[in-house]
Amino acid sequence: MNEKGEVDLRDLGVIPTVAEGAPVMQRHPATLGVAGKNVLGEDIPPPPGKDTRFGSRLQGVMVDPENPNLLRAVVAGQPVLLRDGVNIEPVVKMAVVDISTGNVDFVGSLTITGDVQSGMKIKVGGDVTVEGTIEAADIEAGGNIIAKGGIIGQGAHGEGDAPAPRIRAKGNIRARYVENAILIAEQSVYISETLINSDVMAMNRIEVGKKGTKKGYIMGGYIRATQGVSADFLGGPGSGHTRVSVGVNPLLQQMMEAKKQAIAAKVREHADLSKLIKLLQEKPDKREMLDRARNTLRKVSEEISAAMEEERALLSEAKLADQADIAVREGIFGGTTVTVGRRSKFIAEDCGRGVFRLTEGQLVYAEKKNG
């Protein structure tokens, strides 16, 4: 129940997990027991306790080198209790994710042999692999997301005031087809067949279709990637407005802005510490405080250097966008808008295969002849 007294029946609690290095089982060695007496008052020696050792084929755990009676996790995951120990499962397998299973929150990876039903939420630290179809679900993965049966969302609007469900991966997103969905990949997006009326963003590339199949349509929606986009067709008969943009990635810009703000905050902290150290140097009785301030100043200086190095890496990645292009293997339908960097072009009439790129600051379409 939240602060408003509302209950989400999909929230059934998180999957029990342990972190790497966590103690998971303590073994208590067998004892001799306590002697008893019979009705004649004679001593009855106790039978010796039966000692149970840890199993030899346990997975995801190790015996603590300093304590032979303690098991520790060597991977993060779900603990599974056994007769002679504990296994740690870094990958959880489920038949489906629906109202019966509840939302999923797990530190490892998740494999689903069926579908992910509309309205469900999944958050994992590793990969998500769905053998079936992902409906209008909210999925966040620390690794890759694979939808072998495709992704069907509900567009840019959620239920009521709720935000629209998103599929977000720190790695790649792969799917057979995508329709009316919001996808965000911090690496690349690979779609085997069609990409219809969706909002898709990738830090690297977006590739739709497989060579020779002629099924790779981008029809409607807003498609953005830093390095490039490739597809068999842009637009399609009766499709909505198709917008494809490369060379500028809002996700990268957000990261650069956040890094600038972090550096500015550290620089202000550095200045404040420097002022404090000057004041403390004039007070001999504050020697201990002065030493702490100097140690903190050194740490802040190191953090500033690290943050500036990360900013330089982001700037270098942003410059790669100058080489971005939009490659069309078969053709473009009229009513499509393409953007490379800050240059845009509205395609009014159908045209053939080719590549859009910047040449001397101008957006150029190098059309290739068939055959």
> Treating each run of at least 4 consecutive H or I residues as one helix, how many helices?
2
User: Can you summarize the main beta sheet?
Assistant: 23 strands, mixed
Radius of gyration: 29 Å
Number of strands: 30
Question: pLDDT under 50 segments (min length 5)?
Answer: none
Q: What is the overall pLDDT average?
A: 87
How far apart are the first and last residues' alpha carbons, in Å?
64 Å
Helix content: 10-25%
Structural class: alpha/beta
How would the global form be characterised?
Answer: flat
Strand content: 35-45%
What this model shows, in words?
There is one protein chain. By secondary structure, this protein is α/β, with parallel strands linked by helices. Helix content is 17%, strand content 36%. It has helices at 250-280, 287-319, and strands at 23-26, 36-37, 43-44, 61-63, 70-73, 78-82, 85-89, 91-94, 104-106, 109-112, 121-124, 128-130, 138-141, 145-147, 151-152, 167-169, 173-175, 178-179, 182-185, 189-191, 195-202, 205-208, 217-225, 228-234, 242-246, 325-332, 336-340, 343-347, 351-359, 362-367. The strands form four sheets. It has a 23-stranded mixed sheet that branches. Helix 1 runs antiparallel to helix 2 (287-319). The longest helix is centred in the C-terminal third of the chain and has 33 residues, at 287-319. It is flat, with a radius of gyration of 29 Å. The model has no long low-confidence stretch (mean pLDDT 87).
